[in-house]
Design brief:
heterodimer; A: about 325 residues; mainly alpha; B: alpha+beta
Chain lengths: ~325, ~550
């Protein structure tokens, strides 16, 4: 019961965040210099008659509150508006790109979970040269921004070795995986390093605790000690950091999508913001805010399942 | 009256381009630093040696080609098409009443034209031309297409260019008569570009406002037909098996036009073969591509001009001697080497000699008789001193995110400082640069800014008219030189091509004397073709006429 109340409360917060975000983003784009019509004409000075027609068509000649209200009213009726640049429904444009971003973030999350947590656990349990190596490599990786990783991966694995394609989405599942591998790796690199380091630290901390030492001295098999006493207790901080980094991937994906010319939401958001295509920016931003909140909510719920002692509150952990 | 495509390829890869721009800036500064006032080596004769408008025709079929543009296509409707990506795509699928040949000369397209009187044009449709759906092209389709382009209520971009048209009438099923309010010999050039593209009336009426959007489709006559358009993925075209022109046999089965804004992505795509071709404007990785062996780079005649556009004559640039001095101090060879990697020519006029699409002998003779603009810092400094303007400040509008504009600005900064002027920069993000062209507020406080402009057909007048005629779309400070205006207006009403060329040449010479805008360099058309491909057009005509008719595999 308490859990459902928590979820309900979070959903109310989500709706409030969406409203505030929509207003702030709309205002920011409204205030930014330039007009969407400039991008529309490829920078050509338009005849005044065309400008008049186009401003009227897209309500650009109205006041800020009127424009925002017009957008909000439509959005509440499930109509996210029309892209000024492409003259196409925003929901259609988003739908055609959503799987690129979702696939990329999922692929990267998978890499982070498997490799990040795996490396962290192994190096946490086995102090020595391997652990030292992981520490050094993750320290370097954590400092590599995604766009640098992207350029390096393109140069080495696409241009020099030719193992993976340099750009595009590909067609069909296997081809998609091949095309998404370099982007997912560049997206995952920094987060993977952080997750590995946090995992390693938590495992190390749990392994040194008294109940673990007691279990070992009582002759309980090592496998059981690791699973039941170390990993179970280390799971909460690991889940938390994995959740946070995964949520942040949603935002960073834009950089990687641009670098690899993927038709994802992030790359489209950048393009739409540059051309002041306000309905598109609104639609994508709100979707990303929702995804971010939902991933965090899921993380909290998983943590609560892992450790029932954790109270589900909205106060920061 | 001719609005210009003022859009540069906005490819800005944060780190990579920043590094390249820095390097270019230093190179330009270094070159001008070492200059001791000696003249640069004499420039090439028009229109530049070794610049061919076509590449050797392909001989082998190729199943599919991926072609890059600087950004995604945003419309396939000709009246809403106004940039390199749209032009590159439209010109493969849709055809205009008249056609621009690779050298820029006008030829019959879907129709032939005659002039029974200076204010009457009669277009006679070529027999046997059909749309992709098999319907014949009729005079009703032509009237519909032209009326659509000329109607300001539709919000299209070209109504202003057709402002001398009084009426368009179908005088027979295969004949269309256009009546003008006054003679306009620039109109044929317009009708060989976007406003002259012919679309199918019944189809466009059925599609309504969806025509040419991702939700709708288009119906044209070209050798390639639209297969699909997914924003973010690309425009896919397939060969038209029933193309009306039996002498054209395209070799490529499918062409995908894909927007690739990132330089690193584009370069990697070309190097790995994921992208097989691109028309590159100011491509900073040109050198790397040229030496890779993975692609072949062709340089062809260009129609665009890299210039310093004067935003205001009220400041220090109001003095002709200062404008001349600034031009004289500019290290143009430095710009060619570091910004264009050699793919540009030293100027004699403002317009690129690649735009001599008619009256060729008249233009060439006049052009070759004009001096190449060379560097002479000592003389330039004297001019500034005589003007009493030493120590005054010039404010340049610029952006650091666009390699060509950043490089041009660095060269001008070095030039101005070398002749005793102070420089202030007003830098804006790349995507806001276009505001300089369209917004007086954005130009407030700015004396000048670099720009690359081109007209939509091969006529130097297309560029000059836009900033030298009263009411011109980029005539920022109401420049109104009586001699230049008279020459251009007279040219517009002159039927004889050679006489028209002589008038335009006169306007060009006066423009350089008056330095109303300052020519920087004349960029070549840069064509990058993947290994094993050949046959694409290598002049700027690719923007307005089918550039892939002869594209195919090498023997």
């Amino acid at each position: 019961m308490r859990r459902w109340r928590f979820v309900a409360r979070r959903l109310v917060v989500l709706v409030a965040s969406l409203l505030v975000a929509s207003l702030v983003i709309f205002a920011a784009l409204y205030l930014a210099p330039g007009t969407p019509l400039a991008a529309l004409s490829g920078g050509q000075p338009l005849p005044p008659a065309s400008v008049q027609v186009l401003e009227q068509r897209y309500h650009l000649n109205q006041s800020f509150p009127a424009q925002y209200w017009y957008w909000l009213e439509n959005a509440l009726h499930g109509n996210l508006g029309v892209s000024i640049t492409l003259r196409e429904n925003v929901s259609t444009l988003i739908a055609s790109r959503i799987w690129t971003t979702a696939g990329l973030v999922l692929y990267a999350s998978l890499i982070i979970v498997v490799l990040g947590i795996g490396l962290g656990v192994v190096s946490g349990l086995r102090p020595g040269p391997f652990d030292g190596g992981v520490l050094v490599v993750t320290a370097v990786c954590a400092a590599i921004p995604a766009f640098v990783a992207a350029i390096a991966l393109i140069i080495v694995f696409a241009v020099k070795l030719g193992w993976f394609p340099a750009l595009g989405n590909g067609t069909g599942f296997l081809d998609n995986v091949r095309h998404f591998t370099l982007p997912a790796v560049s997206l995952a690199t920094a987060s993977l390093a952080i997750v590995a380091r946090v995992t390693r630290a938590s495992v190390r901390q749990e392994a040194d605790r008294e109940h673990v030492q007691t279990a070992v001295s009582r002759g309980i098999p090592a496998r059981q000690v690791i699973r039941r006493h170390i990993l179970r207790n280390a799971a909460v901080p690991i889940t938390t950091i994995t959740g946070i980094t995964t949520a942040s991937l949603i935002a960073v994906a834009a950089v990687v999508e641009v670098a690899f010319s993927l038709n994802g939401l992030g790359a489209y958001l950048v393009q739409a913001a540059e051309t002041k295509d306000i309905a598109v920016v609104q639609g994508i931003s709100l979707l990303l805010v929702t995804a971010f909140v939902v991933v965090n909510l899921l993380t909290d719920l998983i943590c609560a399942v892992l450790d029932p002692r954790l109270a589900l509150t909205d106060s920061p952990r | 009256m001719v609005a210009l495509g003022v859009e540069m390829d906005h490819r800005h890869t944060r780190a990579a381009v920043a590094a390249i721009v820095t390097a270019g800036t230093m190179a330009v500064a270094a070159c001008s630093g070492s200059s001791n006032g000696s003249a640069s080596p004499p420039g090439p004769a028009s229109p530049g040696p070794g610049l061919a408008a076509v590449t050797p025709a392909g001989t082998r079929p190729v199943s599919s080609v991926v072609w890059a543009t600087s950004r995604d296509v945003i419309s396939l409707d000709p009246i809403f098409s106004a940039g390199y990506p749209e032009y590159t795509t439209d010109s493969l699928m849709c055809e205009s009443l008249l056609r621009q040949a690779p050298d820029g000369s006008l030829q019959p397209g879907l129709a032939t034209v005659s002039n029974p009187s200076p204010t009457t044009l009669v277009f006679t449709l070529r027999p046997g031309v059909t749309f992709w759906d098999g319907h014949p092209v009729t005079s009703a389709d032509v009237v519909y297409s032209l009326d659509r382009a000329a109607d300001p209520k539709l919000g299209g971009y070209y109504s202003g260019r057709l402002d001398r048209i009084a009426s368009v009438t179908a005088t027979s099923p295969t004949q269309v008569t256009v009546k003008l309010t006054q003679p306009d010999y620039w109109l044929e050039g317009e009708l060989a570009s976007m406003p002259g593209l012919i679309i199918e009336k019944s189809f466009a009426e059925k599609e309504g406002k969806n025509y040419g959007t991702p939700a709708g489709s288009i119906m044209c006559t070209g050798a390639y037909m639209l297969k699909s358009w997914t924003p973010g993925v690309g425009v896919v075209m397939v060969r038209n098996p029933h193309y009306w022109n039996p002498s054209v046999h395209p070799l490529v089965g499918q062409i995908t036009i894909k927007g690739v804004p990132e330089i690193t992505s584009l370069t990697a795509g070309l190097l790995t073969g994921a992208i097989q071709g691109v028309y590159g404007v100011g491509l900073p990785t040109l050198d790397q591509l040229e030496h890779s062996g993975a692609v072949r780079v062709y340089l062809g005649p260009g129609w665009s001009s890299d210039m310093l556009e004067i935003a205001s004559f009220k400041g220090v640039l109001g003095n002709l001697n200062v404008r001349r001095a600034l031009s004289m101090a500019l290290n143009r060879q430095g710009i060619i080497d570091s910004v264009y990697q050699g793919a540009a020519q030293l100027p004699r006029w403002l317009s690129n000699p690649g735009t001599f699409g008619y009256g060729m002998s008249v233009f060439t003779q006049a052009y070759d008789g004009s001096p190449v603009l060379t560097q002479n810092i000592a003389e330039a400094r004297k001019l500034v001193q005589q003007a009493g303007d030493t120590g005054k400040t010039i404010t340049f509008g610029t952006t650091s995110q666009q390699a060509v504009y950043a490089g041009d600005t660095a060269a001008y900064q070095a030039a101005a400082e070398a002749i005793g002027l102070k420089v202030a920069l007003k830098s804006v993000p790349a995507q806001d640069y276009i505001d300089f062209f369209i917004s007086p507020q954005a130009r407030a406080g700015i004396d000048a800014f670099p720009a690359v402009d081109y007209g939509d057909y091969a006529d130097p007048a297309a560029l000059l008219a836009a900033f030298e005629l009263p009411g011109g779309s980029v005539n920022y400070d109401n420049s109104d030189d009586p001699q230049i205006v008279a020459a251009l207006e007279q040219a517009r009403g002159t039927a004889n091509p050679n006489q028209r060329a002589a008038l335009v040449a006169k306007a060009e010479k006066l423009t350089v004397q008056q330095m109303l805008w300052i020519p920087d360099v004349e960029p070549d058309t840069v064509l990058v073709l993947g290994k094993g491909l050949t046959g694409a057009l290598s002049s700027t005509a690719y923007l307005f006429s089918p550039w892939a008719d002869q594209l195919g595999g090498t023997g």
